[in-house]
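Notes from the 1:1 (GR / supervisor)

We went over the backlog. Supervisor wanted to see one worked example end to end before approving the batch request, so GR pasted a single chain during the call. The sequence is below; no edits were made to it. Supervisor asked that the structure be written out right there so they could see what the output format looks like.
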Amino acid sequence: MPIDVRIFIEPQQGASYTDQLAVAQAAERLGFSAFFRSDHVVSMGDGDGLPGPTDSWVTLGAIARETSTIRLGTLVTSATFRWPGMLAIQVAQVDEMSGGRVELGLGTGWFEKEHLAYGVPFPSKRFGLLAEQLEIVTGLWGTPAGETFSFDGAHYQLVESPALPKPVQQPVPIVIGGGGPTRTPALAARFAAEFNCGFSSPDDARARFTRVRAACEEIGREPGSIVMSLAHTTVVGADEAEFRRRAEAIGRDPADLRSNAIGGTVDEVVETVGRYAEAGATRIYFQVMDLHDLDHLDLLARDVVTQL
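Structure output shown during the call:
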């Protein structure tokens, strides 16, 4: 089975809207199936994050109007950043703006520093927030037009919501990820079109995929109906010198990229992706960190994706 390949960026590390649009349009032109971005507002590591953060759904809405075929989404929207009713409106609107090309990755949120920086509450227990948000977002979208939606949970209460607007897609694909051994697989089995195991080794990915398939079987869902995916920092070079130059440009050790990410020459990267395919992945997100190196995308599309 061929691997579906997507591009994933981390704009909080330092990217304007214009930078992101250029990557999205290049990814579309080169035939990648989707453009996804993270949902963070403070840079990580030593970078200054200039020119500053961009909101995920504002950005994706704008990109939706400047692209025509590539799918758009988040890995992943933080449940702590948004009220679920408003999130349902935002995503449905971007889905309409894109002509039905949106996917919603939703997670608990984890980076406390960015919450402190922008005055966003960061509760110590967040899984319940995520579970209720999934109930609400899917409930609002699934309520028939002309009917209302109400919800009385521990964290959120909605009273006779008109449940509008509706997204173009019914349903909007939802991506859930994480490493929890029981609750996360159960949530993915219930709500997700795709389970993403993040930055995992092939052995870890295989174990996580197995747990999600088992959770699907427990509720009577066909395990093959959920896409198994992963994301990894990706650096490839046409030769060793180019690979090392790209690794240096993002401040990563070449040996570390080879061992703990997807890095190396073209043949090495194809081999690494193959190990994830053997573990059960049918979709991969190439996390590219240097958004000004569009030749990198071209090499990935021309010499790597064509071999997968």
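Supervisor's comment: The mean pLDDT is 97.
Batch request approved.
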